[in-house]
Amino acid sequence: PRSLFLRPYCIPRCLVVSVVTLGVVVFGGYRGVSRGEVSFDVGQTWQEARLEHSGTALSWAIWSYQWLPTQPGEYQLVVRGTDGTGAPQIAENRSIVPEGATGYHRVTARIAA
Question: What is the 3-state secondary structure (H, E, C) of 26-91?
Answer without folding.
Answer: EECHHHCEEEEEEECCCCCCCEECEEEECCCCCCCEEEEEEECCCCCEEEEEEEEEEECCCCECCC
